[in-house]
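Async update (no meeting this week)

Hi team, since we skipped the sync, here's where things stand on the single-chain job. The sequence we agreed to prioritize is pasted below, unchanged from the tracker. I ran it this morning and attached the output directly underneath so nobody has to dig for it. Comments welcome in thread, and please keep replies under the output.
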Amino acid sequence: MTARRIIATGASALALASLAGCAEIPFLEPRDESAARPVAVAPPPGAAASPGAAAGAPPASAVTVEEFDTTTPEERAAAAAPTAGGEDALGTTVASLGSPAEPGFWAETPLVSAVRPGRLTNPATGASVQVELRPSGGAPGSGSRVSLPAFRVLGAPLTALPELTVTGL
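Output:
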């Protein structure tokens, strides 16, 4: 046997052994979709409900932005309305779209250490929205995730990474 033939045979055996192990990987097995159940999560004690949270979760069959955003035009207008003073600047953050399946107006950000009401402003559009600020647990400067309804009120493209101003209320 030549050295090339031995190497080729060894490589083939190694590849075959590697593929045989794939049958043991659980995420490659078919899963029972009926077992997936939504779980209701209560807000922390003393936390105000997220604006628009009453709209409820989107249907499991949701595929479009309109189907995922279950807030009403009235809720979006109320979230965009100015507040009566008492705002304190927390900083700026680069934002990405958070889970579209989570209803309400919220932002997960490293700029807060506890849940509190706040406002996001998009300097590019001049639009602002009241949100529930939630701690992300990330390092300062790590960016924020913003709810679908808030992103829409801010006039930001859903695939953009806008720099937003964050204020506490």
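Quick observations from my side:
Confidence is low (pLDDT under 50) at residues 33-49.
DSSP finds four helices and six strands in the chain.
Reply here if anything looks off.
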